[in-house]
UniProtKB/TrEMBL annotation:
GO molecular-function term, one example from the UniProt record: monoatomic cation channel activity
UniProtKB keywords: Disulfide bond, EGF-like domain, Membrane, Repeat, Transmembrane, Transmembrane helix
Subcellular location(s) per record: Membrane
Protein name per the record: PLAT domain-containing protein
GO cellular component, one term: plasma membrane
Domain EGF-like: from-to ranges: 63-101
One matching Pfam family: REJ
Keyword Membrane: yes
GO terms (BP aspect): calcium ion transport
Membrane-crossing segments per the record: 1074-1094
Lineage start: Eukaryota, Metazoa, Ecdysozoa, Arthropoda, Hexapoda
Cross-referenced SMART domains: GPS (SM00303)
Disulfide bonds: C91-C100
Domain PLAT: 1118-1224
């Protein structure tokens, strides 16, 4: 449109530095007559059509008489309506067009009426901008096209194009009030009529709007609107909705009988922090044929949360719905806290599922002579109601008799009124909904009447049998069983055959059957039958002559595979956010509901399919990829699935990929740790550790050798992903598990949980080794070492000749590794290049280990040595060494025991036995691992004779010989090595004064502990590979001939009772017999208590079984457990026969007596809880009440339960048996 006189280019004299200094409709532009900028209402390049100067010269007054000011506002023969920056012509019945310039040949064609627009022209911030288009009534074939664009480098770029139809509009009570509610200026809103119009537009951030309104495929109105954003630094919460469609043609379909959770994710702007204190308001609209009606009180079952909206099963009627969420959040930018608002919307449709009619017994069966005929339709089902009680049943048959005419009954059990049974009759069933009259597709059953007494076989569906509109899944096994209606379910000889839809016997059918089950059951293996085909399975047997029955199965068609498009078409891994639009996927089942699962394949030696989410529409927004190996899996409502590999070019630096993945894993672990208070599930820990190991493995072998000039770039690129990987590993080790911490070894999952943590530890240590190897991979010989320090770990990596790395690595004042010159010469030639990687673990990461495992109470250290080959790669790990490598481990806290005692030299006149008894002896138990004892005399200034013997008590003669050691002020510490044993060896410490003066007592204090060096081999600690040395400066020296993860242990040396050598302690009973008597009494009481507890346990074992009721009817397949609790007061049990009947929402059970098959098993006894297994012919539905009665027989006829009534003392639980599964 041309705006003519309505365009203002008034220039004020008010100076400005930025546009915020000017009025609403003004621009801060350079003055042509001076170098300064002034506020201008418009220029020829930026014409102003919305505002004009007010009385003060400020361009802030809305132009409200556009009809008078716009040059082309002719409205020939019609009436002109003022719009913001535009106009609209209300034409007469015989004219049409933007200015009513065209003749209307057909006056019956209806035009849209009372159009209005409202928006904010110039906005100080990119904030709650709304562009509102109102229309009071629609025209014939109404269509509104909406294009948003921006002006950049003198080129108009189209940002979005949307077409709106009547069903996209929302009905408002007042257009003007809605305009004011979304904070458009009051003077603009006053141009909007205060009527009940409809509005289709969401909030958008835009620059130029193109509107075209077509009526009967002819343009009725069109215009261009310009909008200006002054500042784009406003922080806003951005909303993304899941599980619903962004458009009407891409909506989510939800069956009425299933629930749906619509979620909204909130993201910040690129330059702002994460939104906080998010408030949400949800609005729901029912989409009618013309417009959307807001639902003030949503029906039945729904629940609103902060970022989700739950819709319960059977809660909403069928139809199309639009749901909106309005968000308000606190967001910050450079510590500037702001309030931002935004909203999002989407569509979903609630659909009815087809009614399912089913006749128990299959497609055909035989009935013997003199038998009655009952047809069972109880397996029929209406998925659209919570109960089956709303169904009615239409029966008919193919015989030319009155009894075969269609009749409608309410009872699912139907007995045909046939006078003479004979030949073959096919009965047809249709299920009918009593609520809406919908009728299902028919199913039929052929009955063959025999003139002999034959078994009456009937085939039952156990699982995945493909009935009518609910076909069988190809990727899942089919389960059928045949029963004899005369004798009930029993394991009898039966022959199974399979036929295709042409009646031909299936080739290789025996190989399709799965073995190892009962003879009357048939299991057809998954993926053995063709999709989209029908098959008939026939069972014969049970007697002579045999009975016969058949069952027809329809296999599901494959999902129709379409294609997907990426927007943009290419990008960068883990940086570009892609939108995926999938189309032409479909299914032949009803309803046409699909689920899209997107997968990204982790590249490298260890490939892993990582799910990027499950989506209910083909439009997938805001996705990051870490590799170009992408596929989508599409499944219908019955889990029939198909796959499509997608092509996308997304080159990326591998460092960035690892950084993003590791950061994501760390975020997940941290979030779960916060949610569970550090108690993260063991499965999550195991999965995260395995994934991290594969990520580091993939990265390690993609790092190339770098030159000196690229060294700094390599450090910059790799350190960030390394930091994220280490942070994720630290999060894994920081997690805890209550089962392990409390040592609940009796818990059924305890051993599995320990195994998962053991495996996770192994994976994480391997990942840390790979990180250190990756650091070495990019270094050249002689480059400066890399040192990294984290919260729990530290790394030191260098590439050089080994002779240049024989100093303490990394620091002799802390845990370190030291190569000797001999070892360096052994491993390498003078110019050979090696990588030496050392990383330290500062805390005990093996907290999950069993209680009986030995403790590690030093820092942990890992040393790896690799030789560089001529092509620049590194060869395998150097492990076995001929000369020992010295490992020094910082101890955290020495654990020791103090032994205080005294000894005196015996008189020379004593005989040898007395002299031997005068020797003071202490005994130390040798642990089950290899190590050494540390014996230190504390603050000792005297002299002692010391003898150390294994498995032999030192005697007087040994201490007086030259083999004895002398303890004095200059020599107070002794180290005694020991080897691992089964716990039966001892070390003895024998002491006598060095001075042979008789009867002179010497007091002493000995500090004793043992030490061991351990290596992490596989997934366990092993001792003996490294030999412990002395402890100096709180560091334990371990001398190793193997490279691994090392740790040290300091223990209190145990001092156990020796039942052989200490037998003399038991020879003093006569001196104090009371102690012995008390011990014997305690042992006798313990034995009696043990026998009593053993008998009680045996009794409990007999009662810890389900009691199958004696009067269960064979063939009933729906299982319930009834639990009866009896009180513990005197005479609480009963000898009466207790009867029970359970009533449900669908039907009731038979009357039963609570007694089992085992006549010796007493039930309902004092303090007992009895579990009875009760079978019913059909599901009961929701349990409503229980009827109990007693016959008051026997010596104790009454029955007491802690509850207020017998009914409350029983609890019936529906077991998780699938419909029709028999319980043997």
């Amino acid at each position: 449109m041309s705006y003519g006189t309505a365009q203002y280019d008034f220039t004020s004299n008010r100076p400005c530095q930025k546009m915020e200094d000017c009025g609403r409709g003004e621009y801060c532009l350079a003055n042509s007559s001076s170098s300064s900028a002034v506020c201008q209402c418009g220029t020829p390049q930026l014409p102003q059509v919305y505002y004009m100067p007010d009385a003060n010269g400020i361009c802030d007054k809305v132009i409200t008489d556009t009809c008078a000011k716009l040059e082309k506002a002719k409205c020939i023969g019609g009436r002109c309506l003022n719009l913001l920056g535009s106009y609209y012509c209300v034409c007469g019945p015989d004219s049409k067009g933007s200015n009513c310039e065209l003749k209307q040949n057909d006056g019956s064609v209806k035009r849209a009426s009372n159009i209005a627009v409202a928006f904010t022209v110039v906005d100080r911030y990119l904030t709650d901008r709304m562009f509102l288009f109102f229309v009071e009534s629609f025209g014939t074939d109404f269509e509104l096209t909406f294009n948003s664009a921006r002006y950049r480098n003198k080129i108009i770029e189209i940002l979005a194009k949307e077409t709106y139809l009547p069903k996209d509009f929302i009905l408002f009570q007042s257009a003007r009030n809605e305009c004011l509610r979304v904070k458009i200026s009051k003077d603009v809103c006053m141009m909007v009529p205060d009527t009940k119009p409809l509005d289709p537009f969401p909030k958008m951030f835009m620059y130029r709007i193109f509107l075209i309104l077509k009526n009967n495929n002819e343009v009725q109105f069109q215009d261009v609107y310009s909008l200006t954003n002054v500042v784009e630094q406003r922080c806003l919460p951005t909303a993304s909705m899941e599980n619903c469609g962004s458009r009407v043609d891409n909506m989510v379909r939800k069956p009425r009988g299933s629930s749906l959770r619509i979620k909204v994710s909130v993201f910040p702007s690129n330059h702002c922090d994460e939104p906080k204190n998010i408030f949400s308001e949800w609005k729901l609209y029912k989409v009618s044929s013309n417009f959307n009606v807001k639902m003030v009180n949503p029906p039945l079952d729904y629940k609103v949360g902060g970022t989700y909206y739950d819709i319960g099963a059977f809660s909403y009627p069928t139809g199309l719905y639009r749901i909106e969420v309005w968000l308000t959040a606190l967001v910050s930018n450079n510590n500037d806290v702001q309030t931002g608002s935004n909203f999002a919307y989407c569509y979903f449709e609630i659909v009815d599922m087809p009614l399912q009619a089913a006749i128990e017994g299959g497609a055909s069966r035989s009935v013997g002579q003199g038998a009655s005929l009952t047809l069972d339709a109880s397996a029929s089902y209406d998925h659209n109601t919570p109960t089956r009680g709303d169904l009615r049943y239409l029966w008919s048959c193919d015989a030319d008799i009155a009894a075969c005419k269609e009749r409608e009954v309410a009872d699912p059990l139907f007995e045909p009124a046939l006078d003479n049974f004979g030949g073959e009759i096919t009965f047809t069933l249709k299920a009918k909904s009593s609520m809406n009259g919908i009728i299902s597709m028919p199913v039929s059953q052929k009955i063959t009447f025999s003139d002999t007494d034959i078994p009456e076989l009937s085939i039952q569906c156990l699982k995945n049998c493909g009935i009518q509109e609910y076909p069988a899944r190809v990727a899942e096994a089919i389960y059928l069983q045949v029963i004899d209606l005369k004798h009930g379910l029993r394991d009898f000889d039966v022959t199974w055959k399979g036929f295709d839809e042409n009646g031909q016997e299936i080739q290789g059918f025996e190989n399709m059957k799965e073995g190892g089950h009962y003879r009357h059951q048939l299991i057809v293996k998954e993926n053995s039958l063709s999709s989209g085909k029908k098959y008939t399975f026939v069972a014969e047997g049970g007697g002579n002559p045999p009975g016969r029955a058949s069952y027809q199965v329809r296999m599901a068609n494959d999902v129709i595979i379409g294609d997907c498009e990426f927007k943009p078409e290419n990008g960068t891994k883990m940086t570009t956010r892609f939108k995926i639009e999938c189309h032409e996927f479909g299914t032949t089942v009803v309803p046409n509901i699909l689920r899209y699962e997107l997968y990204n394949v982790l590249p490298g030696k260890y490939q892993m399919d990582l799910s990027l989410g499950s989506f209910l529409t083909g439009d997938i927004l805001d996705v990051l990829f870490f590799s170009d190996d992408i596929y989508i899996k599409v499944c219908d409502i019955f889990e029939n699935c198909g796959k499509k590999k997608l092509k996308l070019k997304i080159p990326m630096n591998e460092y960035r990929q690892v950084e993003q993945l590791s950061a994501y894993i760390h975020l997940v672990l941290q979030s779960m740790s916060d949610a569970f208070e550090t108690y993260v599930p063991a499965d999550v820990i195991a999965t995260a550790s395995e994934l991290l190991n594969k990520i580091t493995y993939s990265l390690n072998y993609k790092i190339e050798i770098l030159s000196y000039s690229l060294y700094d770039d390599y450090i910059k690129d790799f350190l960030t992903p390394a930091k994220h990987m280490v942070s994720s590993i630290e999060a894994i080790f920081a997690s805890r598990n209550k089962l392990i911490e409390k040592h609940e070894e009796e818990h059924p999952t305890y051993a599995e949980t320990v195994y998962k943590y053991r495996r996770a530890t192994k994976q994480c240590i391997a990942s840390l080794e790979l990180i250190s190897s990756s650091l070495a991979q990019g270094l050249l010989q002689g480059q400066k070492e890399i040192t990294l320090n984290y919260k729990e770990f530290s790394f030191w990596v260098k590439v050089d000749t080994l002779l240049k790395m024989t100093h303490a690595v990394p620091d002799e004042n802390d845990s370190h590794v030291k190569f000797s010159d001999e070892l360096a010469n052994e491993l390498s030639k003078p110019m050979d290049s090696f990588s030496l990687s050392v990383f330290k673990l500062k805390n005990d990461l093996f907290w999950w280990k069993d209680v009986d495992d030995f403790d590690i109470n030093t820092e942990f250290i890992v040393a790896t040595v690799r030789k560089r080959n001529s092509d620049g790669t590194f060869s395998g790990l150097v492990e076995a060494l001929d000369n020992r490598l010295d490992i020094y481990l910082t101890t955290k806290k020495n654990k020791s025991s103090l032994i205080k005692g005294s000894t005196a030299f015996p008189p020379a006149s004593w005989d040898d036995d007395k002299k031997d008894k005068a020797v003071t002896v202490h005994r130390l138990d040798i642990p089950t691992f290899e190590g050494q004892f540390h014996i230190k005399f504390v603050n000792f200034e005297n002299s002692l004779r010391l003898a150390l013997e294994k498995n032999m008590r030192p005697d007087y003669e040994l201490l007086m010989s030259d083999e004895a050691k002398v303890v004095n002020a200059s020599e107070t510490e002794f180290i005694v090595p020991f080897e691992a044993n089964g716990g039966y060896d001892f070390f003895y410490i024998g002491l006598l004064p060095a001075d042979d003066t008789e009867n002179v007592s010497v007091e002493y204090t000995i500090e004793v502990f043992d030490s061991s060096c351990s290596s992490w081999i596989g997934d366990e600690w092993r001792s003996g590979i490294c030999k412990p040395g002395p402890i100096r400066n709180n560091m334990l020296n371990c001398r190793c001939k193997h490279l691994s993860l090392f740790g040290g242990s300091l223990f209190v040396a145990p001092n156990k009772v020796d039942p052989i050598n200490d037998i003399e302690l038991f020879l003093t009973v006569a001196d104090n017999p009371y102690i012995a008597i008390i011990v014997l009494i305690c042992l006798l009481l313990y034995f009696l208590l043990f026998v009593w507890a053993w008998r009680k346990d045996k009794k409990d074992e007999s009662y810890a079984k389900l009691i199958k009721l004696r009067d269960n009817v064979p063939g009933d397949t729906n299982a319930y457990v009834v639990i009866a609790y009896t009180g513990i007061r005197i005479a609480a049990g009963t000898t009466s026969n207790v009867g029970i009947q359970i009533y449900g929402s669908l039907t009731e059970s038979r009357a039963h007596i609570l007694k089992g098959d085992d006549v010796d098993r007493k039930v309902l006894q004092r303090g007992a809880d009895d579990w009875f297994l009760l079978f019913t012919p059909a599901p009961l539905g929701e349990l409503e009440r229980i009827h109990l009665w007693l016959d008051f027989t026997g010596s104790s006829p009454s029955w007491y339960s802690p509850s207020r009534s017998y009914a409350n003392s029983l609890r019936a639980l529906l077991l998780s048996f699938a419909k029709g599964i028999a319980v043997n």
